[in-house]
Write a structure and sequence with these properties.
single chain, mainly alpha, Citrate Synthase, domain 1, Cytochrome p450-Terp, domain 2, three-stranded antiparallel sheet, Citrate_synthase_sf, transferase, Citrate synthase, citrate synthase activity
């Protein structure tokens, strides 16, 4: 399949010192424009997420992950021929070399799956990747993320690693490799929607990290390993399983109101509520809510009741804070429903986001300038130097 990097319209960034329109710096770089992108737009005020012009609700309800990956990489939704070609390319890349498998086997069974993914991706890249990032490389590494996770998960549970099935799509094959069984349609649909919804999200911490590394003219795997390190942090992608911990602690519908009120009153953090960007409902949470309802109706009852109770209490006890359900809340419910263990939640986020990361890496290198922001120095000036022998 012939593949070329699309014209993204990316333009070089200007140094703040020579850019009179640059906004003043503030903690966390909030409000600072660090790059231009044609890949996705997050409208936090309106609660809208757009991939290359398409509303996320339309994509999540109708498209496969492969279609959305094609959209992110090539700039347009594929026709049937293009989609078939991409599926064939994914299928051709569904293997792990022996050195990667050996690396996975040698890691302790207690290793966090995010660390396994980071380590195995780095091992694969050391012998498989060189030169400037390409779409071919993006497809190759995206195809292998779920293979790495499934291989480790089976090994730590005393099971043999499975071969991929060429007739299965990206989401279905991942579930098959984890369980050894052809997954239920509703589970495939739920996981596929999740992968679509999480595939990209503007200039988040991990995407920014990937673009910084790519801007140095490093390779695609180095950029991805850096992104994985950023995603692992609990303030970014490392918290979905904690939603399940919270729901497990609450336990029953009757316990929801007193538990939540106590937590909010005493400054406790409600997992799955609030977002750095969205000041209204997260559109991804809206879609995931319906997926979770279908995937496990029984567990959904508690999740939904806790959500409704928490939102009412937040409005009562934290008026004006505009705290809403975020993507983590129903991500946790959905992934549990399709059979994933809690420590696979964040790595599965990475399975999805790999498509967006690689799209941003390709966009960065297509019209590159080294990302080199400034820092406002707040330390002392004009200290008097004292030789070592004279220091008290």
């Amino acid at each position: 399949m012939s593949m070329t990097i699309p014209d993204t319209g990316n333009t070089p960034q200007k140094d703040n010192a020579t850019n009179p329109a640059a906004k003043p710096n503030k903690g966390g770089l909030e409000g600072i424009v660090a790059a231009t992108t044609a890949i996705s737009k997050v409208d936090g005020t309106a609660g809208r997420l757009v991939y290359r012009g398409y509303d996320i609700h339309d994509l999540a309800r109708t498209c496969s992950f492969e279609e959305v990956a094609h959209l992110l990489w090539f700039g347009h939704l594929p026709n049937q021929k293009e989609l078939s070609e991409l599926h064939e390319r994914f299928t051709a890349e569904r293997s792990l070399p022996e050195n990667v498998l050996q690396t996975i086997r040698e890691l302790p069974s207690t290793t966090e799956p995010m660390d396994v993914l980071r380590t195995a991706v780095s091992t694969w890249g050391a012998v498989s990747i060189s030169g400037k990032p390409t779409i071919e490389q993006a497809i190759a590494v995206t195809a292998r993320f779920p293979l790495i996770l499934a291989a480790f998960n089976r090994l730590r549970n005393g099971k043999e690693i499975l071969e991929s099935r060429s007739e299965l799509g990206h989401a279905a094959n991942y579930l098959y490799l984890l369980t050894g069984e052809v997954p239920k349609d509703e589970h495939v649909q739920g996981l596929n929607s999740y992968l679509v919804l999480l595939a990209d999200h503007g200039m988040n911490a991990s995407t920014f990290t990937a673009r910084i590394v790519a801007s140095t003219e490093s390779d695609i795997v180095s950029s991805l390993v850096a992104a994985l390190g950023a995603l692992k942090g609990p303030l970014h992608g490392g918290a979905p399983s904690k939603v399940q911990d919270m729901l497990r602690t609450i336990g029953t519908v009757e316990n929801a109101e007193p538990w939540l009120r106590e937590a909010i009153t005493h400054g406790g953090r409600l997992m799955g509520f609030g977002h750095r960007v969205y000041k209204t409902a997260d559109p991804r949470a809206e879609e995931l809510r319906e997926m979770a309802r279908v995937a496990d109706p029984d567990d959904f009852k508690l999740s939904r009741h806790v959500e409704e109770t928490a939102l009412a209490l937040l409005d009562e006890l934290k008026p004006g804070r505009r705290l809403y359900t975020n993507v983590e809340y129903y991500s946790a419910a959905l992934m549990k429903a399709v059979g994933l263990s809690g420590d696979l939640f964040t790595p599965t986020f990475a399975v999805s986001r790999c498509a967006g990361w690689t799209a941003h890496i390709l966009e960065q290198v297509s019209n590159n300038r080294l990302i080199r922001p400034e820092a406002e120095y707040t330390g002392p000036l004009n200290e008097t130097f004292v030789p070592l022998a004279d220091r008290s």
